[in-house]
Specification:
Elements (H helix, E strand, L loop, with lengths): L3 E3 L2 E5 L6 H12 L2 H6 L4 E5 L9 H15 L6 E4 L3 H11 L5 E2 L3 H8 L9 E5 L3 H13 L3 E4 L3 H10 L4 E4 L7 H10 L4 H5 L1 H16 L3 E10 L8 E10 L3 E8 H12 L8 H25 L4 E3 L3 E3 L2 H4 L7 E9 L2 E8 L1
Parallel strand pairs: 2-3, 3-4, 4-5, 6-7, 6-8
Antiparallel strand pairs: 1-2, 9-14, 10-11, 10-12, 10-13, 11-15, 14-15
Helix pairs in contact: 1-3, 3-4, 10-12
Amino acid sequence: MTHTIRNSILILSYDNTIEESKNTLFANTIASFKELIEEKQIKGIFISLHNMTHFNEILLLEHLVKQLSKAAQKIPVPISLGDYSKALFHLLQPITVQTPLKLFQNINTAILFFNPKSFKKDLSVLLFEEEPANADKLATELGKLGYTIIHAKDMEDFKHKASLKNYDMTITQNAFNLSQKEHASTQKSLGLSRELIINLPIFIDTAVNTLVTTTGLEAQKIKHAIMPFNEKISEPSIIAVMKFKGAICGSFFLIFPRDVAIIAIESMLGESIHPDDIAVITDGVGEFCNIITGATKATLSNKEIKVLFELPKTYTSLKSAMGHVSCGNGIWIDMQLNAKPFYMFVAQ
């Protein structure tokens, strides 16, 4: 069996008429690649089905899936199937859902999930899947990898948004089926709704635009990740927390190291403030939180997502602010204002 390697992904092709004997041989050959996988530090396997024939023989397709699932237990990296037609995807999706096999429409999607370091930071991904549960899994995994996800509501919306070319990548007809280990890890790591993950860009973009407009300074997002609240920030910090409820529920945290808060507030007011005037500094961070969440609420409302934000509470202690974190993980966002770090955290 010939193979190639691209971006640490091992690429194979099933170029035969589907038969049980060929299925078994193909799967056994994959299992024999274990040493190559370790030697070349392979991140995942992508099996192209572009030249497979007679794939509509459902019993033979089920046999292939069973054999590949067995092979997946013998190697240390995940296996994906791809380069399929829409018809083949709809056959594969129900028979792979209880297996660890991934369905990735093309090699670029496989690289997106298996080797995210191959892509730039802050990659924006336009996503559409017909089944909400499948869309949830994909959006969750993309969010965990630090990508910004834009979810299309239907195929027409997907095609329209894709035509605008405002995204780094568009993906559809994929399925991120989970192994038992991956499923346990995901269940442990989440507690975050699909709606919160999908609408995360609104919180980020609104914060950037608000700070640029109110301070005249340069603001930008650096990265984000699903993780616990980071209580190890060394600088004395001012934290504003605002709970929200409605179509999306949770808490929004705005965390400014004190020196960054002073820079931001002085730029907003156009005058100096005393570095020890904690009341003014906490009020200023609370006002930034008010403006950001107010603009976020308006943007969500335009999308017919009704959310009510409570009044902000401010803290000078990270541990005190953490009392508002009701579950283990949230979305931690590293930001910069005038090249200095500040942070946001959004949690259920």
